[in-house]
Amino acid sequence: MQRKKSKIKSSADICHVGIDLLGSDTPPNELLEAVVAFKEQLEPFVQLTLFGLRDLAHTALPDGVFFHTASQIIEMEDDPLYAVRRKKDSSLYLGVQMLKEGHLDAFISSGNTGALMAASKLLLSTLPGVDRPALLTLLPTRKTEIAVLDVGANTSYKAKHLLQFALIGAAFQKSRGIDLPKVGLLNVGAEAKKGTPELRTVYESLKKMSSPPFLFIGNIEAREVFQGGIDVLVTDGFTGNVFLKTAEGIAVVILDELEESMREQEFSPLNLTLTKLRHHLHFAKYPGALLAGVDGIVIKCHSNASFDSVLSSITSAVRLTQHHFLDSIKN
Amino acid sequence: MQRKKSKIKSSADICHVGIDLLGSDTPPNELLEAVVAFKEQLEPFVQLTLFGLRDLAHTALPDGVFFHTASQIIEMEDDPLYAVRRKKDSSLYLGVQMLKEGHLDAFISSGNTGALMAASKLLLSTLPGVDRPALLTLLPTRKTEIAVLDVGANTSYKAKHLLQFALIGAAFQKSRGIDLPKVGLLNVGAEAKKGTPELRTVYESLKKMSSPPFLFIGNIEAREVFQGGIDVLVTDGFTGNVFLKTAEGIAVVILDELEESMREQEFSPLNLTLTKLRHHLHFAKYPGALLAGVDGIVIKCHSNASFDSVLSSITSAVRLTQHHFLDSIKN
Lengths: 331, 331
What we know:
Number of helices of chain A: 11
CATH class of the largest domain in chain A: Alpha Beta
Distance between the termini of chain A: 43 Å
Number of domains of chain A: 2
Strand order of the largest sheet of chain A: 3-2-1-4-11-10-5-6-9-7-8
Oligomer: homodimer
Structural class of chain A: alpha/beta
Largest interface: A-B, 49 and 49 residues
Shape of chain A: globular
Order of helices and strands of chain A: EHEEHHEHEEHEHEHEHHEEHH
Strand content of chain A: 15-25%
CATH topology of the largest domain in chain A: Isopropylmalate Dehydrogenase
CATH superfamily of the largest domain in chain A: Isopropylmalate Dehydrogenase
Mean pLDDT of chain A: 86
Radius of gyration of chain A: 20 Å
Helix content of chain A: 40-55%
Largest sheet of chain A: 11 strands, mixed
């Protein structure tokens, strides 16, 4: 097999996903191998373009997998704005640029979050009515999966941004087949007067807006979220990031401790239960976070990106493309 | 046994703990019974005064347990300032008053958090150098227990308040025998520049202050907290409350789901593991939150207070008294 350069503009029939191999904690060659192995499980209409340095350019690739050579890497420590201005031949920048030009339908990166946001804001416009994009992630609960946003794009916010997040989150869940998504506002208590003055403003505004395209069910405490029952959890980027990482941290500790005690006992039926639960709850299984609110499908994976996160993001990107998420959010 | 009224000023030998039976989701008579049963497990020098309505005043009580009659209840929905002004014969207000007057060494309530804070701020002065009290709670990690504050007393804050919380938290851990407590600042990343402008100011100030009585180890992400290794986690009341309730919510869901699958399998050794883990991680086992920074030991339990939370708070109150926590924090 020969190395191919992606020159084809993606047609209605083909779903073309770009993957950044650089800038994360995972060695690029290992990520490449995992993606290539995963290609077989994908529908034939899915094509992949991998972005990496020249050293990987000569790897033999199967049909439908392309390689695009970059000469720069945006590192985790790089200042986002500096990186976006000075590293225009980086894998991250090139990927977003190809998305903008229509050569890709979606782009996935595990690199510098700030730089991915900056490049996306610079190259792809924000959608009508959206001032700021938000990072949106799907989390498991006892019942259905909940879309949480913002989980880290913005550490400061105004009330209007959280209202926009509610609309974006509702559009996302509609594209997943939920007709009238239930929206909750993350707060320290259920009563209307709880939280900061900004949150009280958001509460009142969401209450007025509550009607299709979504149903506002009020404030929700972090404790209740995992019981399930709502579809969209609205919060600011600082709180959402703490929420997400707390959930991840405690889940990892509990499952690890259980696994340790089970290893001592070697009782397989329960190991199976545990494996199932780990699969259900381990957040690395979840497809990273969607940079929602820009005119393009950009997904950010964990930077200590397990392969699972990248592979699951590919599936997620394909689904979002097939279900016309961007059109749904524009309407 | 006769009902006795607490008139004795607590001496150096006696540790006198007050318990509010009203204002929570737990029926007062059931809480009374649980406390009375628990009394036997306590050292003889611990005396308890229960605060409730007249209907419970005639219950037979063992030696060392007293009853103080209140005529009012501060409800969960009451406005804190209104309640404190108008309900001076409520169990909550009377308890804080008796603490101020030296009839009690500590007071425990599962009632209205805002009212408990308001009464404490009004009747007990804040400690020298402390502008605002904070709710402090101990959380389990993989290694040692961590003191987290503020977990909900204040939803807005300035940098100086978080510095005070660091000092209060360090004094608390010193009173538990940790010579040089390690203090971390909850943030969305480890780098100094992460988070809001206020957090960057707090980071720089803590770095300058870092020396005995504590060691500042920098920003810490929520994900890392449960791996253990730090003794005090400093955060604002909004973020801390979300952090605490997220941890609680996800732990409950995981342990419940595991318990369900195990019930089907009836395999006892693993049920034992699970029970141990639940005991280690279930946050209701933990002694509620200490209202730290006021001149008195006031503990707030979960409002859906399991008995465990109240009983464990009694033990905690006794320990704090015996270890002269207030003196330690004043120094």
